[in-house]
Amino acid sequence: MIKKKIKLKDIAKELEVSISTVSKALKNSEEISRDTKEKIQAFARLYNYKPNNIAVSLKNKRTKNIGVIIPDIVHHFFTTVIRGVENYALEKGYNVIVCLSDESFDKEVINMEMLANGSIDGFIMSLSAGTEKKKDFNHLKEVTDQGIPLVLFDRVTNEIDCDKVVIDDIQGAYVATKKLIDEGRKRIVLLTTQDFFSVSLNRNLGYQKALKDAGVKVKDDFILKLPFMDVDDKAISEFLERTKPDAILSTNEIFGIFAMRVLQKKGFEIPNDISIIGFTDGLLAQHANPAITSVAQHGEKMGEMAAKMLIDRVENEEDEEPNYQTKIIAPTLIERESTF
Amino acid sequence: MIKKKIKLKDIAKELEVSISTVSKALKNSEEISRDTKEKIQAFARLYNYKPNNIAVSLKNKRTKNIGVIIPDIVHHFFTTVIRGVENYALEKGYNVIVCLSDESFDKEVINMEMLANGSIDGFIMSLSAGTEKKKDFNHLKEVTDQGIPLVLFDRVTNEIDCDKVVIDDIQGAYVATKKLIDEGRKRIVLLTTQDFFSVSLNRNLGYQKALKDAGVKVKDDFILKLPFMDVDDKAISEFLERTKPDAILSTNEIFGIFAMRVLQKKGFEIPNDISIIGFTDGLLAQHANPAITSVAQHGEKMGEMAAKMLIDRVENEEDEEPNYQTKIIAPTLIERESTF
DNA sequence: TTGTACGCGTTATCAC
DNA sequence: GTGATAACGCGTACAA
């Protein structure tokens, strides 16, 4: 009952010509006579011939696959990036192999090694928390040393020479903080993650810069650094009680949501009593009540750009002069109901 | 500067042995002498030799890739399924190639055809809206006819003979509706999508069955069928005004969230005035205020089961008697703040 | 215009 | 113990 896939050899045998004639005929080569071409093409269409990707890959040393390694897929931002990559990739005839590092250095290494042995033409990735913490980038170095193109996005590192796509995190935090200052807020606190995340560090800088520019003194105890994994309601609650803020900037979506719920349960009104701005313009921010003003990271655009950079690199490997670029996307402040 | 990847031939040349000796030595074959094995293995380790996946695939006719095609990735449920698939796949040494159909029949076909030509050992997929609407499953049929294993999950069809993983949607809706009835709710309305979605149909059945079992007459105008794409605030708003419900069952997460916001803006208290239960236990339901009681679909478990079924099938292709199975996962009602 | 021969990197069979 | 050879499916330089 199984209709096995037909291959060149089968067509050749059936039509009593050589394999190479079939191969050429199917590529519409000028060398082959109109008659045989038509005969072969008709037969191929009839039996739905499609070249075997693996054999073609082995021959061309091109897989038409791109590997994407992200820390976590249950995370709206990464999800939008994948969608962007997919969009562009499909258009160019590439498949996307997605691997999750699960925020773990080891998994990131394993995944990279698996894919680096011929499965893909290039990588798009965002560093896992484990890798950012450990600051060990040898697996990236090995990949680039082998000449495999790599594009880093969002969570990047200066240690590796390659193409990058990021948003201007400093600017994003600056604009958000400024918005809060302009509203007249005086006690603006920051909810963020630990410093080893490059993005958190930059957002923290932007926050501080905006305060300084407005002549406000930065207080260290107005900044709460939480572990990235399980959110700790209690820590947030205590922090808010201690600091009594009139505005909150959160460097991610989830901390902002948690803070808002804590405050609402205590009877505060958002934004009347307290304004909130979060990073990552995800579904949670959009559908919260009130909807949360957010710094959009434009994940889909980021994915598309990363894919474009990567595929350009893959398809023009002659470049002996790498000339790597870092594209910086401007973040956008999306004003909603959690600010005035 | 580029350190090209080393291959068997390079090792053979360097150590002045034959390629096959190297190959055997690296697989620790008994045929090779201890000395040469050690020498070769040491050399291979030093130069970090790793077999080329593509060549191995061509030889074994096994790619160790599995293709996952889903309608949308910016959707928490599918995202958890992918995570489940990834978990199991990585453990078994498989990569996951993710393709998005974008709810479109055409994209689904294109993606399938791309992957079916040797890129993957089997498929895991959930039907796009377009495919469910069109009821054209030829692309699936072709794939299974070629002997490529296929596991359908969540949005499945009876037209195709293959392994399947679903949750018991009827039961899920039944339990949720019963919960609302037991709370004493009298005017329970249903927010759902159009009938061509198999899951919506079943959830609708469960809702109606629960009402009938409780002796409540089902009113057709208590059921609102919305297009799946862009949610229409106004339609929901009008529906709620017309039906004046004291409880809402939503067959997905997003409609429930929208309904809640509409009601809250009108001054209703959840759950004091109106209870809400949604399907898909996603981030939105968890972090809404109040948090929404939901029917959990156990996406991660579903993904793991689908991956296990697929890989079992792939690795035991001798089975001439297919004997396909449909695994039915029991849904769980997660009680939160939007019900009593 | 068509066909032969070889290579892509690996593995398995068989001969030495 | 080791090595030559064929095969996986395709593409192409070269020969006929």
CATH architecture of the largest domain in chain A: 3-Layer(aba) Sandwich
Radius of gyration of chain A: 26 Å
CATH class value of the largest domain in chain A: Alpha Beta
Briefly note the CATH topology name of the largest domain in chain A: Rossmann fold
Compute the number of strand runs of chain A.
12
Order of helices and strands of chain A: HHHHEHEHEHHEEHEHEHEHEHEHEE
Low-confidence stretches of chain A: none
Helix content of chain A: 40-55%
**Most extensive chain interface and residues per partner:** A-B, 57 and 57 residues
Indicate the mean pLDDT of chain A: 94
> Major sheet of chain A: order of its strands?
2-1-3-4-5-11
Report the portion of residues of chain A in β strands.
15-25%
The 3D shape of chain A can be described as elongated
Instruction: Specify the oligomeric state.
Output: homodimer
**Count of helix runs of chain A:** 14
Terminal CA distance of chain A: 67 Å
**Quick one: biggest sheet of chain A?**
6 strands, parallel
CATH superfamily placement of the largest domain in chain A: Response regulator
Description:
Two copies of one chain form a homodimer. The first copy, chain A, has helices at residues 8-15, 19-26, 34-46, 53-60, 76-91, 105-116, 129-134, 138-145, 169-182, 198-213, 233-243, 253-265, 283-287, 299-315, and strands at 65-70, 95-100, 122-125, 150-153, 163-167, 188-193, 223-226, 247-250, 275-279, 293-296, 326-329, 332-334. Chain A is of the alpha/beta class. The first copy, chain A, folds into three domains: 8-51, no CATH class; 63-165 and 299-328, Rossmann fold (3-Layer(aba) Sandwich); 169-296, Rossmann fold (3-Layer(aba) Sandwich). A six-stranded parallel beta sheet of chain A has the order 2-1-3-4-5-11, sandwiched between helices. The first copy, chain A, has a six-stranded mixed beta sheet with strand order 7-6-8-9-10-12, with helices on both faces. The longest helix of chain A is centred in the last third of the chain and has 17 residues, at 299-315. The first copy, chain A, is elongated, with a radius of gyration of 26 Å. The mean pLDDT of chain A is 94. At the A-B interface, helix 4, helix 5, strand 2, helix 6 and helix 12 of A face helix 4, helix 5, strand 2, helix 6 and helix 12 of B.
